[in-house]
Design a protein that fits this description.
Blueprint lengths: L19 E5 L8 H5 L4 H7 L4 E4 L2 H9 L14 E3 L9 H4 L1 H4 L3 E5 L11 H10 L4 E4 L4 H9 L6 E3 L7 H18 L2 E6 L4 H11 L5 E6 L7 E6 H9 L11 E6 L1
Parallel strand pairs: 1-4, 1-5, 2-3, 2-4, 6-7
Antiparallel strand pairs: 7-10, 8-9, 8-10
């Protein structure tokens, strides 16, 4: 999916639309219904109650999101019209996805976890809506990046989020070396995420490449009862990880942070 602005095109004339797109922040993990409901404001509940359909990264997590508002919805969560939009969705599908909104419907967008548009392709929906003069608004929610930064105890004055590192070990290690230089040059925190099944491979690469005195943080299971932030020098991580004290990370959404 190409993510770039085409500055060669002239602005399209403004058109009036009765429908609108509403972007909602989602919880960072699956919570029981009653507990999850407490994280959403009355304003968000009122907005969700207006939905005619929902765009989502995955159907399972979208239905879970809607279940927190079961008493407020005008359509049952399992009957709410739903269309998938994720990183593999062709950009050419946007016209089709926005058709119900053009016809006057109010549709929401929710990612699998956290705030759409942050490490998530939701920004393309907002850009499309803006470029086509379709009303749109955002309701803030948690983002794992900032949540992890706060839990780590690192300073939030200067940090960089790099998304996913390379899958291939040698290339991944080269990227880490580059980010070490950035951390040293700017005195900044470096932040990454990874697919859960590759968490341990990334942790091994970080421990191998980072200087012994660098501080490495692993934060996982955010918002859940087993939420954990493990922060220590790399010299301590080597024995900690090899001893198995870190436990299995293969099924835990995690955020990695370091500072040199």
């Amino acid at each position: 999916m190409k993510d770039s602005y085409d500055t060669s095109q002239k602005p399209k004339p403004k058109k009036k639309h009765e429908g609108k797109l509403i972007v909602f922040g989602n919880l960072l993990g699956p919570l029981p219904i009653e507990e999850g409901k407490r994280h959403f404001s009355e304003v968000v509940k009122a907005e969700v109650a207006t939905l005619d359909g929902i765009l989502a990264e995955s159907e399972r997590e979208a239905r879970r999101f809607l279940s927190y508002f079961r008493e407020d919805l005008k359509i049952e969560p399992h009957k709410m019209p739903l269309a998938l939009f994720h990183k593999k969705t062709p950009k050419t599908d946007l016209d089709f996805l926005f058709e119900p909104i053009r016809k006057g419907g109010t549709w929401g967008y929710v990612s699998d976890g956290g705030l759409p548009g942050i490490a998530d392709p939701g920004h393309l929906l907002v850009r499309y809506a803006r470029e086509h003069h379709i009303p749109h608004k955002v309701h803030m929610g948690p983002t794992s990046i900032l949540w992890a930064l706060i839990l780590s105890g690192f300073s939030g004055n200067r940090f960089a989020f790099h998304g996913y590192l390379a899958k291939e070990p040698k290339k991944r290690e080269e990227e880490i070396k580059s980010h070490i230089k950035e951390s040293m040059r700017l005195n900044s925190v470096q932040i990454f995420i990874e697919a859960p099944y590759r968490n341990e491979a990334l942790l091994e690469s970080l421990i191998k490449v980072l200087p012994q005195g660098a501080i490495l943080a692993l934060v996982h299971s955010l918002m859940l009862p087993n939420e954990t932030a493990e922060v220590m020098p790399v010299s301590m991580w080597k024995s900690y990880f090899s001893s198995g004290k870190a436990g299995s990370l293969r099924d835990k959404p995690a955020v990695f942070l370091f500072m040199v």
